Structures
1.
Amino acid sequence: ENYAKIMGIHFPKLTLDRSVGIVSSIIEQKKTELFHVVTVNPEITMACQTDSRLRSIVEEAGLITADGIGIVMVSRLKGSNLPERVTGYDMLLRLLEAGNQKKWSFYFLGADPVTSEKAYEAISKTYPNVLISGRHHGFFTQDEEAGLVEEIHAAKPDVLIVALGAPYAERWIHKYKLKLNARIAIGVGGSLDVIAG
Ligand code: UDP
């Protein structure tokens, strides 16, 4: 089996390396359809038990990873070993490294305005060849949302990083999947706070 089924969710048995490889080749293929990556943490796993809408968002994703040591441990007990935990933060750092070599463009959505600015500064310093096609803090109103989606559409990023917290980010990406004009989108929780220091 290539999958481990844990709490009703089918996790492919992929290492961080393989997951990054899959996402990288999707970006390089330059398809127009958005590829949604969901790093399934304990919050998402629990919410999926009672929220069938969220469950279908996770099931529809192009790639899901096991972002919880508990999920990995349970897979081992069941004899359907997941190789390792793959977090949104790890994925983000690896995508920035790859993007720095391949000159991908990124749009950063989420975190508070100061964190967004600081993360932007840290990322442009560490990954100077990454194209930052835009960013926006994550405390926008309903009224501002359509304009924000248009801004992302116009920025046309290879990678849309959504740091709104889980599962808000996953719902948001899914809601605007057809309008974002990004190659891949991934929710990364509080990663921008970590990068901002
Ligand atoms: N956040 C946001 N908008 C909101 C709520 C949260 O941009 O309306 C940001 C928050 O500033 C933080 C991230 O989302 O940067 C959530 O991080 P958290 O660690 O709570 O999420 P998790 O890692 O648990 O998904």
2.
Amino acid sequence: MNAPRIGILGGTFDPPHIGHLVLAQSALTQAQLDCVLFIPAGRPAFKLETVVASAEHRLAMTRLAVEDNPDFAVCDCEVTRTEVSYTIDTLRELKASLGPSAKLFLIIGADSAAELETWKDADELSSLAEILCAARGEGGAATEHKGDEAQLASGHKGEGHKGDEGHKGDVSFCVRSLRHKRVRPLCVPRPLCVPPLCVPTPIAPRPLCVPTPIAMPALAISSTELRQALAKKVSIRYLVPDRVIAYIRKHSLYDR
Ligand code: ATP
């Protein structure tokens, strides 16, 4: 049996939006993943002051956002932890739970990639998971994210990022709960950016984790902008799944 290839998309999801979904789908397709686990941060390491909705609300919204995609699942392993969420702890937990044969892929946007070296135990991240990174669209508040591939090898900030009922924190259950799992043929080569012949490979020292690029349409959407729009009663239709919008309305989240 092929080793399962599992994508991990951690985030605050405050609220989840189509940028997250397109990012996950792009990684799923291009890296030939079997599934993507969305993992909402319980107490996000570097957003302790700015996170707005409770972990329970963010978990519920994330479940609603992915429920119509059989290749996506939500894992509550960070929400059920009382301590601050660090990606490295989640990767270790997933490895222990899924077994050594599982191949993990950490999916991030360029703003997160620029911060990688400041994350807890950053030097171990790439030994536990291959890192897949997509550029972020720019514009409006999204420019705060400085989304740009050029950042991949330069800037830093901090660990920005930061299941199912009856199986709290059980990551194996989250994976098993996927309704449909594609079986992929052996030996399908992954699309990689292969430099043309005769272009010398750079020998300059590389950053700790060199992410594999993922192409996706530039979507200048961020949760920050969406919260601001909601506070001003501006429509967020088509930027967030309808089910999530209904949940936000029902619970009067982000009213101000
Ligand atoms: P906030 O505005 O509150 O900081 P966010 O929109 O950045 O939130 P997060 O939940 O923090 O959302 O993001 C989780 C992951 O998804 C991060 O790796 C981030 O880079 C990536 N991401 C978020 N929005 C986009 C987008 N529009 N395009 C590509 N990647 C994105």
